[in-house]
Amino acid sequence: MKTLRTAFACSLALTAVAMALPSSAQVSEGNCILAGRLTLEQRWAPKLPGIELLAQDGKAVSGADKQQLAGIKQVRLTQPALLSRCDGSRELTRADDLPVQPKAPVPAASAGPGLLAVEAVSFPKLRTGGELVELKLAVPAERVVMLTR
Q1: Residue 31: which residues within 8 A CB-CB, separation 6 or more?
Q2: Contact 31, 136 (CB under 8 A)
Q3: The model's pTM
Q4: Is 30:56 a contact under the CB 8 Å cutoff?
Q5: Which of 61, 134, 141, 142 is the most exposed place for a label (fewest CB within 10 A)?
Q6: Phi, psi (5° rounding) for residue 10?
Q7: Residue among 104, 87, 123, 122 at smallest CA distance from 24
Q8: 103-122 in b/e burial notation, b at 16+ Cβ within 10 A?
């Protein structure tokens, strides 16, 4: 399967994740979103807009320290976030030699005032340096929408 997340730029990253898998496979293999990318120095590069990270007590988590990020228990979305397969600590799939997938509607967690529970925080490593911040979410069916890129 195809995962185009190594060339990470804020808006392009969302498109790349959506192209990673057919929409039916994305929902069945996990409900993960990307919160952003960390540099080797543990700085956001970038933190994706529209995702508010919260600790168990409801306080905002704004730092990029892995220990702080591991404490994320909830998120508030102010814009839709594309759902993708959860990579966890596995190495990302290299898709350089795979054919480009046609654009199609893809699943996303909708924006809304309600909080979504974070089941796990992972840091998949990038070949070019740095790591992604991947959040595995508990997304109720009514918060899943299909977006066309």
Answers
A1: 83, 86, 109, 136, 137, 138, 139
A2: yes
A3: 0.76
A4: no
A5: 141
A6: -45, -65
A7: 104
A8: eeebbbbbbeeeebebeebb
